[in-house]
Specification:
Helix content is 19%, strand content 29%. It has 504 residues and is α+β, with helices and mostly antiparallel strands. Strands 3-2-4-5-6-1-7 form a seven-stranded antiparallel β-sheet. The chain is elongated and about 120 Å long.
Length: 504
């Protein structure tokens, strides 16, 4: 907030009632003449006193487009044509303009031409135009000479605490940048979720539409306006009759369609204009209907174009989509971090899902436990609160991988010290190439493999028939490989060691 803020008007403060309302005879519109020019000269005086030569356009706005069904909808430039090198499309957030162009923009605002913006030099200077010819100029300097000059022009500068048009952010945490990660996420979403239509807003109430394909996405990205807000929608339908069938009985909707030449169009319409809309769509190749209700208008993805250095400086908020909330949450997570959550479900492919604060992370089967188990439910249960370590955060696929076993020490290396010892274990499984034997006296104890040749000194096949699940079987621990999770056992050598006796 700047220390010196002045409200500049043509209204004499003496002509106000006890509530501060103006009661004089001045017209609330612009005279398109000397008084309007006085406002513009006041801007020049304050800019000069502050040492400002260029200003930035911030949060540009255009009026809500009127409904039109002509062959080519009329495009009013709102007086912007000729002000920017690229035409009206140059009226975007962050566009730098000279003081002379800033004067022209203020003239448009004073005349209620429809276009509106804040004009600012961050931390140094601001010009805001409000209703009824109220202008607010902020500066980092007192600008006494500019104040005197403004009075000399017949205007009334009044020192106030702050401009009522200062930008106030509601939730900067939802400003997702349209960076490389976002576009990679979009590519993935296009493949799996049919997200194909991009809405580009470089000014409030003004949008360009693009239908994305894997082949044109880079070209579309390169042509987007700086600092534009982006919203990604599901693809349009080529079944125009089905699209029209979704029109409500009453109320406003926005219709977006693509004509036979591939050009994109959009308009808003209400129930009285639906017949005209249907006629307009008769030649469309694809279309979609969007609600104008903010609560129902939820895109698949949303982001803001960053500046060339990758920093998001646009201050407007993007649509709070579920994906944006997930992205914001994922940005708070880091590999190696320990999180606590509640087990929500065990999928039929044996992946365990955990709610870690409104986001469902997953634990793959090998990360549940160091010890063997038959089913994830042997380790965790739905509704159980657990702590786990984050292995990976994938913002593109919106996945978080956890490990439950990472919070515990692997007990298998402790068995390395038992190599060469003979123990009695229980047979747990018979396989064609041998038998598995549990060598620890616990339900989830480690198991080792006795290959067929190590079952006995006689014929392996005959020896195999004498072994059953549940049998107690003496085995010698030949090898323990914690990395491969393998324990090699021998019944034959255990029997020989017993026959030879201690010390042999």
């Amino acid at each position: 907030m700047l220390p010196y803020v002045y409200r500049v008007t043509k209204y004499d403060p003496a002509d106000r009632d006890e509530h501060g309302h103006y009661t004089g005879a001045e017209d609330t519109g612009s005279d398109h003449g000397p008084i309007e020019n006085a406002y513009l000269q006041a801007i020049e005086a304050f800019a000069s006193a502050t040492g400002v030569e260029r200003l930035a356009v911030r949060e540009p706005r255009l009026p809500v487009p009127s409904v039109s069904f002509g062959l080519e909808p009329p495009r009013d430039d709102f007086g912007l044509d000729g002000l920017f090198p690229t035409g009206p499309d140059g009226f975007h957030d962050g566009a730098e303009v000279s003081v002379a162009t800033a004067r022209d923009l203020v003239r448009i605002m004073l005349r209620d031409g429809g276009a509106w913006c804040r004009l600012e030099v961050e931390g140094t200077f601001t010009v805001h135009v409000g209703w009824d010819q109220y202008m607010y100029i902020g500066s980092s300097r007192p600008c006494e000479a500019a104040v005197a000059r403004t009075r000399g022009l017949g205007l009334f500068p009044e020192r106030i605490d702050a401009s009522p048009y200062d930008f106030e952010s509601e939730d900067e945490g939802l400003q997702r940048p349209a960076d490389d990660e976002f576009w990679e996420h979009l590519r993935w979403s296009m493949q799996w979720n049919n997200s194909r239509v991009l809405e580009e807003q470089s000014a409030h109430n003004s949008a360009r539409w693009h239908r994305l394909t894997p082949d044109n996405i880079d070209t579309v990205r390169a042509g987007l306006a700086p600092r534009a807000r982006l919203a990604i929608w599901p693809d349009m339908s080529s079944d125009i009759d089905a699209v029209l069938a979704t029109l409500p009985a009453e109320g406003h909707v926005e219709c977006v369609w693509q004509d036979g030449a591939g050009r994109m169009h959009s308009t808003t319409a209400d129930e009285d204009e639906f017949p005209e809309l249907a006629a307009r769509l008769s030649a469309a190749s694809a279309a979609m209907i969007l609600s104008t209700d903010a609560d129902e208008r939820v895109p698949v993805l949303a982001a803001v174009m960053p500046d060339i250095d990758g920093v998001v400086r646009a201050r407007w908020e993007i649509d709070p989509t579920p994906s944006t909330r997930k992205w914001a949450f994922l940005k708070t997570l880091h590999r190696g971090e320990i999180v606590t959550g509640q087990v929500t479900r065990i999928a039929n492919f044996w992946v365990t899902f955990v709610d870690i604060g409104g986001f469902e992370a997953m634990i793959n089967l090998p990360e549940l436990s160091w010890r063997p188990f038959d089913h994830p439910s042997d380790v965790v249960s739905v509704g159980q609160e657990i702590s786990a370590r984050i292995l990976d955060v994938d913002p593109i696929r919106e996945r978080v991988s956890l490990s439950l076993k990472a919070l515990h020490e692997d007990p298998m290396p402790l068995l390395v010290g038992q190599i060469g010892q003979t123990v009695v274990g229980r047979v747990t499984k018979l396989v064609p190439f041998g038998v598995f034997v549990r060598i620890e006296e616990k339900e989830n104890g480690f198991e080792g493999l006795v290959h067929n040749p190590e079952l006995g000194d006689g014929h392996p096949a005959l020896q195999r028939l004498a072994v059953h699940v549940g049998d107690a079987l003496p085995v010698k621990i030949l090898d323990v490989d914690p990395a491969q999770r393998r324990i090699t056992l021998s019944h034959r050598q255990a029997i020989r060691a017993g026959q030879d006796g201690p010390g042999t």
